[in-house]
Design goal:
By secondary structure, the chain is an alpha/beta fold. It contains 9 helices and 8 strands. It is globular, with a radius of gyration of 19 Å.
Length: 268
């Protein structure tokens, strides 16, 4: 009888692991419903040729002469149109803005679903278009990633893009996030899209600015704090009482983002 109970528990556990493995991309990439076209005066929605006949969508606000362009990678529950307010803030501050859509999201929902490999490919295609076709110098690009997008920004920095890096509510890796959410599952064996930013951070010497809220209910604040210790040249802002989605509500934090993007210097 005991062996039967143990066998039943093992089968149930294996079945749960299989279920999580097969459905993990719905968990990691909770694509918002519908597709909305971003609208902002002075901005252009670009259709960029991607890999295997795909189209990469990007929102571009040209930078004034000599000013940097902030390249933004959004969170996993957003789409390109959700970033127009942020694009407007940088536009008003005299900076360029360039946001990239992920495969499987919003206007790019047709075709392949989201994956780490696919998102990296779209991000790199958009960045090459920014340099080659839009004439933005590499040395005037600032990478910025929020939540899921923090891993995209770190990978693009690892590939040699950007001269500065902004991470908003970043994680160490999706494996570690999964282990926190499902501590009874072998996350390291199940995760297909690890986005392992922690492993990449020590080799990136560019200036980094990290923002995280103490009451973040999605990505624990200690992950942002740890990322700040892994980069050789990082400043970390821990915002008391802020949650996952409201860290940019403070005008002073937006001003710091603008200052960091414009000056490329460490903040006091």
């Amino acid at each position: 009888m005991l062996l039967l109970v143990l066998a039943t528990l093992v089968i149930a556990y294996v079945g749960l692991c299989v279920l999580v493995f097969l459905n993990q991309r719905h968990i990691v990439f909770p694509v918002p419903p519908g597709a909305r076209e971003p609208e902002l005066p002075g901005a252009t929605l670009l259709h960029i040729p991607g890999s295997e006949g795909s189209t990469v969508y990007a929102l571009h606000v040209p930078a004034p002469e000599g000013a940097p362009t902030v390249v933004h990678f959004h969170g996993n529950g957003e789409q390109l149109a959700d970033g127009t307010w942020l694009a407007q803030r940088f536009q008003e501050a005299g900076l360029g803005f360039y946001a990239v859509e992920y495969p499987g999201y919003g206007l790019a929902a047709v075709g392949q679903g989201p994956s780490e490999k696919g998102i990296y490919a779209a991000a790199e295609a958009a960045l090459e278009h920014l340099y080659r076709d839009l004439g933005v110098p590499r040395e005037r690009t600032v990478l910025q990633g929020q939540s899921l997008g923090s891993g995209v920004a770190v990978e693009m920095a690892k590939r040699g893009h950007g001269t500065r890096l902004v991470l908003i509510t970043p994680y160490t890796s999706i494996v570690e996030v999964g282990a926190r959410v499902f501590p009874w599952l072998p996350a390291s064996l199940l995760v297909r899209d690890p986005f392992n930013s922690a492993a990449k951070a020590p080799g990136l010497t560019l200036p980094v600015f990290i923002i995280h809220g103490t009451r973040d209910e999605v990505i624990p604040v200690d992950m942002g704090q740890r990322m700040g210790t892994l980069f050789p040249n990082a400043t970390t802002r821990i915002l008391e009482g802020k949650h996952h989605n409201d860290v940019l509500d403070r005008p002073d934090i937006l001003q710091e983002l603008v200052r960091f993007a414009r000056d490329g210097a460490q903040l006091d």
